[in-house]
Design a protein that fits this description.
Chain lengths: 296, 351
C-alpha cells in the first residue's frame, strides 16, 4: 500500500528536483557555451549574441587549430606522458601495495608510516623544484636528455592510491593465496594470477586516477620541460591562451572568426577524449571515492 | 608478571634433571642476534622485499629529498651550492618574514591571510553544499534521472585545472560589449549585480571578486563529485528507519534531523577532518592560473608567494623555503589536531 505523501515531503521533493536541475545545468553550461562559441562567427561571439546555440556557423577556428603542427605535437606528447606515466606509476604502486598488504612483512608499520607521512607533510613547491632540477642534472648526466622521462618517472606518484590498492589486496582471502602457494606458485605468480584478477575494479579505479592526473598535469610539466616541442597539451593550451588574450598582440586580428573561438576550439579539443570515455569510467570513480572514505 | 627460571626449564621425566626449553633457546637466540635474523628473513623472502624497492626509491627521491631541500630555510640561500654545503643562517629568514615589517614581510603576512581565508571560505561554502546535494540526490527515486544528474554534476571534476581556469577566464573576460566581453560578466552586469565598468575591466582583474570566483568555480568543479561519499552514506540507511519514523509521525524535517543526520554524522566528521587538515593546502595550481599582478591583494597565497620568490627573480630560495616551512608545519599540526579532536569526540578518526 502506498502511503500518501506528506506535504513536507512533497515540498522537499519539488525543491530537490528544481535545485538539481539548476545545478546540473550550471555544471553543463560552460561546456555547451564553449562548443557553441568555438563554431560561431566573429561578430556573434564578440557582440555576445551567442548564448546557448551557435550562430553564423564556421569551422575555421578548428581548422586553424588542426593546421597547427604544435597542436598535434602537444597532443602526442600528452598521450605519451599519460600512457607511460600511468604504466610506471601502476607498476610502482602495485608492487609496493602488494608487499605492504602482507602481514609477514618486517617493519610493515614503518613502511606504512613512510607512505602516510607524505600525505601529512609535503615539502612545498620550491624545494620540490630544486629537487627536480637536481634530478634533471642526474638524468642528463646519465644521457637521458629528454625531459619527458623525468616527468614520467619522477612525478605523479600519490600515496593515497597506493593505500587504496593495499586495502584492496588486504581484502583478498588468504586461503586462495595459500592454495596457490601449495600448488607451487611463486610470489610473482600469486600477484599476477590471484591478486590482480581479484581486485580488478580497484586496479581500474587507481589506473584511472593516475591516468587522469597525468592527462591533466600542467604545472611541473611547464616548469621542467624546457623544449617547446615536448610540451603537453595543457601547457600548450595555457600558452595559447596567454597569447590570444593579450590585447596588444591581438590588436591586428582580422579573421572571420573571433580569437576567442580559437581558445574555445582548443578547450573543446582537449576535453573531447575525456567526454568520450567519461560514461564508461564514471562508475569506477564513484567507487574509488567510496573506498577512499575509509582509511586505516 | 616476572618470569621465573622454572618457566623456561623442562623436567626430563626419565633422568630427572631439568633441561632448557628448546623453544626458549630459539627465542633467546633471536633476541641476541636480532639483525642477523632480520637479514635471514629478508634473504629468504627477498622477492617480497624487492617489490618494495621501487616504491621506496620513488618516495625517497621525490618526496623525502625535497624535505631535505626544505631545510634550506635555515641556510644562506645560494643558487650554486647544494643545501648540504650552504652556510648555516639560523632563523634569520623566519625573522625577516615575520617581523621585518618591510615589503617582503607584509607580502608574506598577506599571503598567510589569503591562504587561510581562501580555505576557510571553502570550508564554509564548499563543505555543506555536497551534503545538501547528496540529500537532493536521495530524493530522486528514478535511477535514470539520478544517473543523468550525477553524470552532469561530476563532469567538471574531470577537466584539468588548466581547462577549468581557461573557461573561467574566458567567461568573465574583459572587453566592451562589442569586443568580446565574457558571457557571464555580460549576464551579471545586465541583471545589475556588477557595474558596467567593473565588467569591462574584467572580473579577474579586480581583487574584490577573486575570492568569489575562486569559491564558485571550486563548487562548480567539485561539489557533485564530493557529494558521492555522502550519498553513499545516505543510501546505506535502512528504509525501515524511515518507516519507523513515519509511523511515529515524523515529517520530512524530523526525518532529516533524527534519521539521516545521525546516520551520516561519522562520514561528515571524517570529511571535515580532511578539509580542516588541508586548510593551509590551497590548490596553488589554480591560484597561479587565475591570479595576476592586479589581484595579489586577495589572491596571493603562500605557495604562490614562494613560487615567485624561489623560482622566479625574487628574494631567493631560502626565503621561499622558510615561508613554505611555516605553512606546512602549521598545516601538519592542523591535521594531527583535527584528528585527535575527532577521535576524542566521536571515536571517528582518519589515521
Amino acid at each position: 500500500m502506498k502511503r500518501k505523501l506528506e506535504i513536507s515531503e512533497l515540498i522537499f521533493k519539488i525543491l530537490s528536483y528544481t535545485m538539481l536541475c539548476i545545478f546540473a545545468l550550471c555544471c553543463l553550461y560552460p561546456f555547451v557555451y564553449a562548443i557553441s562559441a568555438s563554431i560561431s562567427g566573429r561578430q556573434a561571439v564578440e557582440y555576445g549574441s551567442v548564448v546557448l546555440f551557435p550562430k553564423d556557423i564556421q569551422f575555421d577556428a578548428f581548422k586553424r587549430m588542426f593546421n597547427d603542427n604544435m597542436f598535434w605535437n602537444a597532443y602526442s606528447n600528452t598521450l605519451f606522458l599519460t600512457l607511460f606515466g600511468t604504466l610506471w606509476s601502476m607498476l610502482v604502486a602495485i608492487l609496493g601495495a602488494y608487499a605492504l598488504s602482507k602481514k609477514r612483512l618486517l617493519f610493515r608499520k614503518f613502511f606504512n608510516f613512510f607512505l602516510v607521512f607524505t600525505m601529512w607533510f609535503s615539502a612545498g613547491i620550491v624545494p620540490q623544484y630544486l629537487n627536480y632540477l637536481a634530478t634533471k642534472d642526474v638524468f642528463n648526466g646519465m644521457g637521458i636528455m629528454d625531459d619527458k622521462w623525468l616527468v614520467v618517472i619522477a612525478m605523479g606518484m600519490a600515496a593515497m592510491n597506493i593505500i587504496l590498492l593495499r586495502n584492496a589486496f588486504e581484502g583478498v582471502p588468504s586461503e586462495i593465496e595459500e592454495a596457490a602457494i601449495v600448488d607451487g606458485a611463486t610470489e610473482m605468480q600469486v600477484l599476477k594470477q590471484v591478486y590482480l584478477p581479484m581486485t580488478k575494479s580497484t586496479i581500474a579505479t587507481v589506473a584511472l586516477f593516475f591516468g587522469i592526473s597525468r592527462w591533466n598535469g600542467y604545472f611541473w610539466a611547464r616548469q621542467m620541460i624546457s623544449n617547446q616541442n615536448e610540451h603537453p597539451l595543457q601547457v600548450f593550451i595555457r600558452l595559447r591562451l596567454e597569447q590570444y588574450t593579450d590585447p596588444e598582440t591581438m590588436a591586428g586580428w582580422n579573421e572571420t572568426y573571433a580569437s576567442d573561438s580559437v581558445i574555445y576550439a582548443l578547450i573543446v579539443c582537449s576535453i573531447v577524449p575525456i567526454l568520450i570515455i567519461y560514461p564508461f569510467i564514471q562508475k569506477y570513480f564513484a567507487k574509488g571515492v567510496n573506498v577512499g572514505g575509509v582509511k586505516e | 608478571m616476572k618470569a621465573k627460571a622454572a618457566d623456561f626449564l623442562i623436567l626430563d621425566k626419565e633422568t630427572g634433571v631439568y633441561k632448557v626449553d628448546p623453544e626458549q633457546a630459539v627465542r633467546d637466540d633471536v633476541e641476541k642476534h636480532y639483525w642477523r635474523h632480520v637479514m635471514l628473513t629478508i634473504a629468504k623472502d627477498w622477492r617480497l622485499y624487492l617489490m618494495l624497492v621501487p616504491m621506496i626509491l620513488v618516495f625517497l627521491f621525490w618526496r623525502y629529498f625535497p624535505m631535505y631541500e626544505l631545510l634550506g630555510c635555515f641556510k644562506v640561500s645560494d643558487n650554486v651550492l647544494p643545501v648540504s654545503q650552504q652556510l648555516f643562517s639560523g632563523f634569520s629568514y623566519f625573522k625577516r618574514l615575520l617581523f621585518a615589517g618591510d615589503g617582503l614581510s607584509t607580502d608574506f603576512w598577506r599571503a598567510m591571510r589569503n591562504t587561510f581565508l581562501l580555505s576557510f571560505y571553502g570550508l564554509c561554502f564548499g563543505f555543506p553544499i555536497p551534503i545538501i546535494l547528496a540529500l537532493f540526490f536521495n530524493e530522486v527515486r528514478s535511477n535514470i534521472a539520478r544517473s543523468v544528474f550525477q553524470v552532469l554534476t561530476y563532469l567538471p571534476k574531470f577537466m584539468s585545472t588548466v581547462v577549468m581556469a581557461s573557461l573561467v577566464m574566458m567567461l568573465v573576460k574583459q572587453g566592451s560589449l562589442t569586443t568580446g566581453m565574457g558571457i557571464v560578466s555580460r549576464f551579471l552586469s545586465n541583471i545589475g549585480l556588477i557595474g558596467k565598468d567593473v565588467a569591462n575591466a574584467g572580473l579577474l582583474n579586480n581583487p574584490a571578486y577573486f575570492r568569489s570566483i575562486y569559491q564558485i568555480s571550486g563548487i562548480w568543479e567539485g561539489a557533485g563529485y564530493d557529494s558521492i561519499v555522502f550519498f553513499a552514506a545516505i543510501i546505506a540507511i535502512s528504509p525501515t528507519s524511515y518507516e519507523a519514523a513515519q509511523i511515529d509521525g515524523a515529517d520530512k524535517w524530523a526525518q532529516m534531523r533524527y534519521v539521516v543526520l545521525p546516520s551520516i554524522l561519522s562520514t561528515i566528521v571524517i570529511m571535515l577532518i580532511t578539509r580542516i587538515g588541508s586548510l593551509l593546502n590551497v590548490g596553488y595550481e589554480k591560484v597561479l592560473l587565475l591570479y595576476n599582478t592586479k589581484t595579489y591583494m586577495t589572491a596571493d597565497v603562500v605557495s604562490t608567494f614562494a613560487h615567485r620568490n624561489g623560482m622566479g627573480s625574487g628574494a631567493g630560495t631560502g626565503i621561499a623555503a622558510a615561508a613554505e616551512m611555516m605553512n606546512n608545519v602549521v598545516g601538519m599540526l592542523l591535521v594531527i589536531g583535527a584528528n585527535t579532536i575527532a577521535r576524542k569526540a566521536s571515536n571517528t578518526s582518519l589515521y
